[in-house]
Amino acid sequence: METGGIVEPAEPVRELILRSRTIRIPVLATQRGLAAATPKAFNPADLEELPE
Fold first, then answer.
1. Would you state the pLDDT for residue 22?
2. How high is the pLDDT of residue 41?
3. Rounded-to-integer distance, Cα 46 and Cα 50, Å
4. Rounded Cα–Cα distance for residues 11 and 4 (Å)
């Protein structure tokens, strides 16, 4: 089967190991940028409104 010169980039794969099987999930390049997002700083003053 000819691909006509089209070369697809290799996708990194993450594996999730469950009780009886392993699921392989391709990780797209666009998802890497989202995973690298920096978390917001924690402010302990936000806890004042929580019930005990």
1. 72
2. 79
3. 8
4. 20
Share of the chain above pLDDT 90, in %: 0
Integer Cα distance of 28 and 34 in angstroms: 11
Q: Which residues contact 14 (CB under 8 A, 6 or more apart)?
A: 24, 25, 27
CA distances from 31 to 3, 20, 36, 48 (A): 27, 27, 9, 35
Token pair for 38 = 């920096």
**How many Å apart are CA 28 and CA 18, to the nearest integer?**
22
Q: Is residue 37 helix, strand or coil? A: coil
Tokens for 3, please give them.
């691909």
